[in-house]
UniProtKB/TrEMBL annotation:
Keyword GTP-binding: no
Keywords on record: ATP-binding, Kinase, Nucleotide-binding, Transferase
A Pfam family that the UniProt record links to this protein: YegS_C
Full protein name: DAGKc domain-containing protein
Boundaries of every DAGKc domain copy: 103-244
Manganese recorded as keyword: no
GO CC terms, sorted: cytoplasm; membrane
GO molecular function: ATP binding; lipid kinase activity
Chain intervals for the UniProt region annotation (Disordered): 332-355
GO biological process: sphingosine biosynthetic process
Natural source organism: Trametes versicolor (strain FP-101664)
Residues annotated as transmembrane: none
């Protein structure tokens, strides 16, 4: 239920301020403020309100335009003794409405990688993120990483009771480290329940894009808000075994063209995200096959059904989120988006499914498997991925003409390649790869692994992320009428 309209008026004459809590919105009118004489923000963006030592304090993130960047507003003003009861009551009501069934003042373990992306993370953290966490009165334990794998080592020994979430300001590489730190923790299942949330500052920030959406992922303040207000969202993780050792992958594994462009373009780092596109074009010009044997434990492979399932799951998650956001105020942060489904139950309705291992036996250009729709801001590789369907999305690009592959680049941000006949898409419980030779790369969450035999198995709902929505943020649907995709031939088992 939305809170009733409540108003607080403070000060007099030119210094008068009026605060109105109206449904899901806070309105502030302060004629004396030259920059923001009137502000309207959704309650979601309110970070703090309190009366402290006779001063009314209010912090919120605000935007000048709906699609603009967040700006932190800290307002404060004296409260007379006569106004003290009404100001305190207003602040309490505002906080209750701004944190519905959400824990306040989260205790955050924050990792910032100074070397991530263009190397500006420290400055951005100090300028933008730190003031937001301070405004929300979060308890921050900050580490600027000083060498590779430092975050992983620290997470392996993390005192789990000490933190409500782990915040990672870097690219996807440091998130990979954190999940692998959990794997080596003395209490792995408890460790994996610690929510993880990204603040994008790397060259690949897929998790931030998937949680926040393409637009908000450009605004690190939106990511900070997610660390403060996001709700725990379970996610499947992908257990990769190679040479008898287990690794945890949260995002993707790739071979062939995709791994080459991911790992073989380090020298083009100065280009930022553009280096992946350049690498893709270079790979297409070389047009090499990827000599591997791929076996997949397939749950189903009907592209249209996958889209319908994804849309239905998103609707359900959004309804759950909306109910939670309207829920009674509480300081209990345990509200999650429900338990992950049993993957066997998820497909119980589909009697034609064959849970046996099948072998993909056509020449392929790349294999790309993972969790989470976007793998970079330009590529919507797994548009039907769901956080907790207990399945991994496995795509195998069969060898085709260069022209067909070049055409696919254009719509890759929209996921157009999903509909290519030669792009085989499987929902799978597990898959195995046996490379014919060891020349080339295996990329796991963007990190280099040897091109040796490996197997991936889904660990349903093992990990926890933070989300404002309860589902990934993307726009993908069945093609409009008149633009029907051609029927896709099954890869022969
Ligand atoms: N201070 C540091 N110096 C050098 N490397 C570091 C430091 N801190 C972390 N690292 C390593 O930097 C890598 C950066 O990965 P991450 O993906 O998070 O950022 P990125 O800028 O997107 O990098 P990449 O493009 O390589 O993926 C991680 O493997 C991590 O171990």
């Amino acid at each position: 239920m939305s809170p009733p309209t409540t108003t607080l008026a403070l000060g007099e004459g030119a210094n008068a301020s009026k605060f109105t809590l109206d449904g899901d919105t806070l309105r502030v009118e302060r004629a004396a403020d030259n920059k923001w004489p009137q502000v309207q923000v959704p309650l979601r963006d309110v970070l703090w309100a309190a009366v402290d030592n006779g001063v009314f304090e209010l912090s919120a993130l605000a935007k000048r335009k709906p699609k603009g960047m967040y700006i932190l507003l800290n307002m404060s003003g004296p409260v007379t003794d006569a106004d003290l009861p009404s100001a305190t009551a207003f602040a309490d009501a505002l906080m209750a409405a701004a944190y519905p069934a959400l824990q306040r003042q989260r205790r955050l373990k924050v990792f910032v990688n100074p070397k991530s992306g263009p190397g500006k993370a420290v400055g951005l953290y100090r300028k933008k993120i730190e003031p937001i966490f301070r405004a929300a009165r979060c308890d921050v334990d900050l580490t600027f990483t000083s060498y590779g794998k430092q975050a992983q080592e620290m997470v392996e020994k993390l005192p789990l009771d000490r933190y409500d979430a782990i915040v990672i300001m870097s690219g996807d590489g440091l998130i990979h480290e954190v999940f692998n730190g959990f794997l080596a923790h003395a209490e792995p299942s408890r460790a994996f329940r610690t929510p993880v949330t990204p603040i994008p500052s790397g060259s690949g920030n897929a998790l931030a894009i998937n949680l926040l959406g393409l637009d908000d992922a450009k605004d690190i303040s939106a990511a900070a808000l997610n660390a403060i207000k996001g709700r725990p969202m379970s996610t499947d993780l992908l257990s990769l075994t190679q040479g008898g050792k287990e690794y945890m992958s949260f995002m993707s594994q790739s071979l062939g063209l995709i791994a080459d462009l991911d790992l073989g373009t380090e020298h083009l780092r100065f280009m930022g995200g553009q280096r992946f596109l350049v690498g893709f074009i270079y790979g297409l010009i070389r047009h090499r096959s990827c000599p591997v044997k791929v076996s997949i434990k397939v749950a189903h492979a009907d592209k249209r059904k996958m889209v319908q399932d994804m849309k239905a799951a998103h609707e359900q998650a959004q309804a759950t989120y909306a109910a939670l956001a309207q829920g009674p105020a509480s300081e209990d942060g345990a509200a999650a988006f429900g338990a992950p489904p049993d993957p066997k139950l998820a497909d119980a309705s589909d009697e034609e499914e064959d849970p046996e291992w099948v072998t993909f036996d056509r020449p392929l250009v790349y294999l790309f498997a993972g969790k989470g729709p976007y793998v970079s801001s330009d590529v919507l590789q797994f548009p039907v991925s769901l956080p907790t369907d207990g399945l991994i999305d496995v795509t195998v690009q069969e060898r085709t003409t260069r022209t067909a592959m070049f055409k696919a680049i254009d719509g890759s941000q929209r996921g157009d390649h999903y509909w290519m006949d030669t792009q085989h898409y499987y929902k799978a419980y597990a898959y195995r790869v046996e490379p014919a030779d060891s020349k080339g790369w295996l990329s796991v969450d963007g990190e280099a692994f040897p091109l040796e035999p490996y197997e991936v198995e889904v660990r349903p709902g093992l990990g926890t992320l933070l989300s404002m929505y309860g589902c990934y943020q993307l726009d993908f649907d069945l093609p409009k009428k008149g633009k029907q995709p051609a029927p896709r031939p099954q890869a022969a088992p």
